[in-house]
Amino acid sequence: MSLDFSGAVAREDKPSTGYFWGLMSKYGTSEAAAQVSLKDMANAIRALSMDGVQQANSGHPGMPLGMADVAAVLFTQFLKFDAADPTWPNRDRFVLSAGHGSMLLYSLLYLTGYPGMTIEELKNFRQLGSKTAGHPEYGHAPGIETTTGPLGQGIANAVGMALSERLLAARCGDDLVDYHTYVIAGDGCLMEGISQEAISLAGHLKLGKLIVFWDDNSITIDGATSLSASDNQLARFAASGWNTVRVDGHDTAAVAAAIEKAKKDTSKPWLIACKTVIGYGAPTKAGKSSTHGEPLGAEEIKGAREKLGWPYPPFEIPAGILGAWRAAGARSAGLNADWKSRFGKADSAAKTLITGRDAAKAAQSTIGEAKAAFAADTAMRATRVWSQMTLEKLVPALPELLGGSADLTPSNGTRTKSHTSIAPGSFAGNYMHYGVREHGMAAVMNGIALSGSFIPYGATFLVFTDYCRPSIRLAALMKQRVIYVMTHDSIGLGEDGPTHQPIEHLASLRAMPNLNVFRPADAQETAECWELALASTDRPSVLALSRQAVPNLRSRVETENRSARGGYVLREAAGKRDVTLIATGSEVGLAVEAADKLAAEGINAAVVSMPSLELFAAQGEAYEMSVLGDAPRVAIEAGVSQCWHQWLRKRDAFVGLSDFGASAPAGKLFAHFGLTADNVAAAARKVIAAAKV
Questions:
Q1: If phi over 0 gives left and psi between -120 and 50 gives alpha, with beta otherwise, what is residue 297?
Q2: Of 41, 52, 12, which is closest to residue 328 (Cα–Cα)?
Q3: E strand or H helix at 202, and its extent?
Q4: Distance CA 584, CA 294 (A)
Q5: Alpha-carbon span 326 to 345, nearest angstrom
Q6: Within 13 Å of residue 466, how many CA atoms lie on the same side as its CB?
């Protein structure tokens, strides 16, 4: 559906409800309230935005000036939020996908009265330690729903939030879960490939409570968008299953009419294309690319104040206008109170799902049962299979666990007998088919995690973390519990060849701060790594799993999570250590085999399994030495060596890869690249000999 409200009949340019005006009398004088219009309120956003950027001598004033009218309409008339209770579960979500325009968001948070967002914070825009970072950062201040800045991420996060709303409503009822997700996106957001992945998925699922405002100002950093793009965005969104409407973004009545229409028709998501002027109000720079990413300058700001009819000094908001904004911030307080009353009467299952619980504690006995069963299992299986067998036990125990795959479900082993598929109009399921949208999947999972009820896990091949990486990085930055099941973790995947064989990927992921990278060696380690991922509430986790079968190395029933410290002695030497063999994943089995060969020669080799280098590094020097010892060391991993130098000294050795793989059966590839027990044993003899020199 495509509509045009640009010629809509103008309504009174102020919020219309009696409740709102009652609040106005509370937060500002009635006389002042009577003089406040939406243009006044929008100009308050503009003034604070250009003042903040000018004070910092850095930032992006153009978008906030251009989208201030849209934001004023949304926040005063439609957005359901309670500034005094920023984490209200049933609030509408607002995502600033065009994160460079962060002063728009910070101005709104100050004006509506969010706790901690003071005028001083606006004055400290882009300064060290401030809540007002250059781009919105989740956790810095209440009201920032997600970290944005990398363009297109916010749209995809919002799809995850809108999806969470439908999933939660299907379980708890619309009486407890009923909110919209709104997005402001710019031309750059829509150019990014991730935007297509996200809007395609949203359209397919018919996420009708998702509304995207496109800041259609036809300007990018380089100049006019015509330099690089000529897309018909409305046709593009319509082709992806969205309703569309085009409005004048500075016509508040038209904007309001479009939002009203979108809220009434929830059959599909909505794109509201808002034709705006970047830097609106700037006397000489409006409509120009120069307003995008640099301060307007003192003279231009002076002229803008005159043109907008804003005679007030920098960072000063008149009492009447601020009162109107504070009233807008409290507009939904009554709805919040009513919701809390209904929530108090809800059943315990709904309450638990909405507010969350300690999932790791809830899964503890289930993990224990899995480990006990695995200890008695002598079969050789791929760790991806052990992962699926773990999930068979976890999924029934954890209703909050939401699975999925980027079109590799049979290969990833992420679906269990307890899963049902999520489909358009059918949101009672617990398994997502993300399609071939790896980047979109990872960003959508971020939105799901941020929504606060579900623990998302999604899967693809480890090599395709290249496609997911920007979203993984943001999950780490935001400290979100997102779990990535990344299978086919080495040349062991075989015949698909070097395009599908991850070589440098483990090292690159381990280089990322605040990310768990787990590479389990066998059944019990796989279950333990799942337990650790669930327990990691402040960071995402990657489970790197094998395609090829590996031996089950631990046959004793162990209640202790031996993977929790990152590395441990899997098998101690028979006598004083001559060498320590350190490995991860499928190569731990090689290390055990090499140790057996060395033992036959009278060489005492200890085997250390290190499923997580990050957790091991966090244990401290004393534990490190207790595990690694003083003997010469050989590290073995089917990847590059860069991440291993922390554990290897000058005369120690690394057995791994320094080039891309090849297409051949896995066994032949391991032999070709020297990843054999014989080669590990030879490396051990060499480092032992070197230590004696």
A1: left
A2: 41
A3: helix 193-205
A4: 49
A5: 31
A6: 9
Contact 41, 325 (CB under 8 A): yes
Q: Which of 316, 669, 310 is nearest to 493 (CA)?
A: 669
Assess if residue 366 is contained within a domain: yes
595 is a domain residue = yes
Question: What is the CATH classification number for the domain harbouring 275?
Answer: 3.40.50.970
The catalytic residue among 121, 137, 300, 438 is 438
Evaluate whether residue 462 is within a structural domain.
yes
In a domain, 683, yes or no: yes
Looking at the structure, do residues 475 and 583 belong to the same domain, yes or no? no
Distance CA 328, CA 16 (A): 12
For residue 16, with 0-12 CB atoms within 10 Å meaning exposed, 13-18 middle and 19 or more buried, which class applies? Answer: exposed
- Judged by DSSP in three states, 165 sits in helix
Q: 265 is written with which tokens? A: 């028709």
Task: List pLDDT tens digits, range 526-569.
Answer: 999 999 999 999 999 999 999 999 999 999 988 999 999 999 99
In this structure, the answer to whether residues 360 and 336 fall within a common structural domain is no
pLDDT at position 457: 98
Same domain, 579 and 654: yes
The conformation of residue 11, written as its DSSP 8-state character, comes to: P
Joined tokens for residue 479: 């400290």
For residue 188, the enclosing domain spans: 2-8+23-340
Q: Is 226 helix (H, G, I), strand (E, B) or coil?
A: helix
pTM over cut 0.85: yes
Task: Please check the confidence at residue 405 and state whether its pLDDT lies above 50.
Answer: yes
Confidence grade of residue 31 (pLDDT, cut at 50, 70, 90) = low
* CA–CA separation, 598 and 596 (whole Å): 5
Of 340, 375, 408, the residue at which a domain comes to its end is: 340
What is the C-alpha to C-alpha distance for residues 638 and 658, in angstroms, rounded to an integer?
10
**433 and 462 belong to one structural domain:** yes
Secondary structure in 3-state letters for 44-86: HHHHHHHHHHHHHCCCCCHHHHHHHHHHHHHHHHHCCCCCCCC
In total, how many domains does the chain have?
Answer: 3
Query: Both 187 and 333 in a single domain?
Result: yes
Ranges 31-40, 149-158, 457-466, 577-586: which has the least confidence: 31-40
Q: Is 438 a catalytic residue?
A: yes
Give me the residues paired with residue 405 across strands.
433
Cβ(669)–Cβ(579) below 8 Å: no
* 102/125 Cα distance (integer angstroms): 9
Note whether 377 and 309 are same-domain residues: no
Q: Which of 183, 298, 237 is nearest to 3 (CA)?
A: 237
Residues 170 and 201 in one domain: yes
Rounded to 10 degrees, what is the CA torsion of 677, 679, 680, 682? 120
Count of other CB atoms within 10 angstroms of residue 399: 17
Computed over every residue of the chain, the mean pLDDT equals 95
